[in-house]
Structure prediction request, 440 residues.
Amino acid sequence: MPEGGTQNGSGTPAALLGGGRGFADAQGRSRVESLGERLLGSLLDRAHLMPARLVGPLLAQEIAAVGASDVSIWLQDYDQRTLQPLSGSGLVGEPSPIDGSWPGRAFTQDARIEQELPDGSVRLFMPMLDGSDRIGVLAFTLSAVDDNDRRLAQRLAGLAADLIVTKSDYTTTFDRVRTAAPMSLSAHLQWQTLPPLVMTTPDVALAGILEPAYDVGGDSFDYALDSHVLHLAVFDAMGHGLEAATMATIVVATYRHGRRSNASLPDLYVHMDDVLAATYPGRFATAQVGRLDTETGVLSWVNAGHPAGLLIHPSGEVTELTGPITRPVGFGGAAPLVQTAQLSPGDRVLFFTDGVVEERLEDGHQFGEARLRELVEQTSVDQVSVAETVRLLSHSLMDARGGRTSDDASLLLVEWRGPPRDDELARGIIGGLPAGDIGS
Prediction:
């Protein structure tokens, strides 16, 4: 039938019904642009060449054009205590604490929060997730809300996160918004080397954090998910300040170089050991370097001078990943000792640097592993998400020592959720859609 012919014998031109010979689906849905498609499409089209400083106003303008008001965009600050507002034409909002606020609830729960206002309108607070990494919160007010509005709002928040992350590579605009306190040069260097703080897939979830966020020196972490192998590492370079941060940067770069070459765990250790010994004679870095097979749940690791990792079961039971410890990297010539453990679905593993448990509190006592165990047990029993568990652990540590620290502290928490499904691309796969997703 020609493009201008009729459809289903109705006598109506196919073009007017949204039909034709191009894109189509099994339900025969129209290709005519809907309100949602127009909104999201206009944002994509206009953002293509839009400077970063206008991304927030662009979002506010487009959202207002489809009936919303009071648009706010908050970005999380570096220590994950405050949501910092973007400013510009069409945007409203003040700094908001993550704990105990409406936008903070959306952030910590990774879910849509609806606030009913006295005039009967509804304010929607939507987490902005880049993949699964927490970027911030988008909020706006509608006169009424149904599932169509919720679905569009969620997709709009996802697109907003993607636009901000993409434009961040070309500007310092968003970094300045996120920086709620003066940041040292060493901390700036460390933050530039970090991967996203959160990663979630149907098979594995991961989150990491550095403390103190604005003055960290020698601590760092890294990870990568390649096929069905999760690579992960935590580092603590000797010393403090810029020299430690520079050494940590070299260690991370060496680790990534070996990882991308598909080096084994022993070879990764030797590579880092050789490079650090040659570059910084007489200095060293402790490390935990591991791999998790997401098909089998087998975790392998080399502990090069760190405290033993903790294995956390869904019941809240916590055990140590004990075993022989390899010398820190940089001394030269040590034989790496690889250890393994079989995880069960739902098990979590926490790797951390010595600054987490050895820091002295005001009474002179160490924060201690026993206290750390109590915290992780409680978050497991309460079924707190991986990302929120790490944030709460970090803040509990900093609060216990009055916001002061004599050593960096890093946390990396991994949850194995179970082997992948046979068809990993199946629609509606559990864990494959954002929390609070409204069906298509």
About this structure: Residues 1-10 have pLDDT under 50 and may be disordered. Residues 316 and 382 are 9 Å apart (CA to CA). The chain has two domains: 26-175, 183-416. Residues 26-175 form a domain with the Beta-Lactamase fold (CATH 3.30.450.40).
